[in-house]
Design goal:
single chain; 11 helices; two-stranded antiparallel ribbon; Class_I_gatase-like; transferase; Rossmann fold; twelve-stranded mixed β-sheet; HST_MetA; about 35% helix
């Protein structure tokens, strides 16, 4: 997929070295098509790593894509330079009057706090509410998924006795078009201290797409098919869990080694194909259902919401 990026965007050189096609603005403007417009709300501390992980995955389609990155204004960002954020990131006040074909809300290392204790919770709620009418489809990742399930459906977090950390086998429970081509069982990285209240899930208008071997929901979709909730991390690179493990121990946190991750002392990536397939399917689906004129998204979303009630 030709991803339109600024020439000096840090992820561009990494993607080019992996033979992923990134297109510059001058060439993009010569193509007589409407690119998909994606917005990524990046809540992770190391924003550049997350940019690379997600851009790598949305590169598997012939569609041209314009990507905007969004930061929360109500939080002090300590792990990414102000120069990078000022140059490449927007604030919600700059996009709230715009429509997007797709939105990705990343995870964040705040899951042990109550949602309302997170310093940018009010701003995130405003963004999630805005997305219901101004975006064709939303993908929520890890804590972003828990936040969406809590805000939209009132589903609570449930603490685990120990951190769920490693790669875990998932089984398809409900076949849905975003998972065409998926194996009946597949692997997904997990890195979290909390799950969700499964009893509350059963009472809501939500489809559970996949569960793990402990019957924990891993992928869910709202009944109106607008919101996708990934409680794991398809976007993780091969060595991300190892980096997290070493980081935890450097901080004095006695996290166990990631489960099902090392084999004979080596890391094997068991989730890469499904990760690429999911984002390919998602982009193709968005392309099929989003209107050509972006301003029509709000009108179509209102009709969609009415049909779901």
């Amino acid at each position: 997929m030709p991803i339109r990026l600024e020439p000096d965007f840090p992820a561009k050189s990494v993607l080019e070295s992996e033979d992923i096609f990134a297109i510059d603005n001058s060439r993009a403007e010569q193509q007589d098509i409407r690119p998909l417009k994606l917005l990524i709300l990046n809540l992770m501390p190391n924003k550049i790593d997350t940019e690379i992980h997600l851009l790598r995955l949305i590169s598997q389609s012939p569609l041209q894509i314009d990507v905007d990155f969004l930061k929360v204004a109500s939080h002090e960002h300590k792990n990414t330079s102000k120069t990078h954020l000022d140059k490449f990131y927007l604030e919600f006040s700059q996009v709230k009057d715009t429509c997007y074909d797709g939105l990705i809300i990343t995870g964040a290392p705040v899951e042990q706090l109550a949602f309302e204790e997170v310093d940018y919770w009010a701003e995130l709620v405003e963004i999630m509410d805005w997305s219901q009418l101004s975006v064709t489809s939303v993908v929520h990742i890890c804590w972003g998924a828990q936040a969406g399930l809590y805000h939209h459906f009132g589903i609570d977090k449930v603490p685990f006795k120990e951190k769920l950390f490693g790669i875990y086998k998932q089984e398809i429970e409900h076949h849905f078009r975003l998972f065409r081509g998926f194996d009946d069982r597949f692997w997904m990285p997990q890195s979290r201290y909390t799950g969700i209240n499964e009893e509350q899930v059963r009472q809501k208008k939500i489809k559970v797409i996949a569960k793990d071997e402990e019957e924990r929901s891993a992928i869910l979709i709202s009944e109106d098919e607008h919101d996708v909730f990934l409680l794991g991390h398809f976007e993780y690179a091969t060595n991300t869990l190892e980096k997290e493990y070493l980081r935890d121990h450097d901080r004095g946190i006695t996290t166990a080694k990631p489960e099902n991750y090392y084999e004979d002392g080596k890391i094997h990536n068991y989730w890469r194909a499904q990760a690429h397939l999911f984002y390919h399917n998602w982009l193709n689906d968005v392309y099929q259902i989003t209107p050509y004129r972006l301003e029509k998204i709000r009108e179509l979303q209102k009709k969609r919401k009415l049909r779901s009630y």
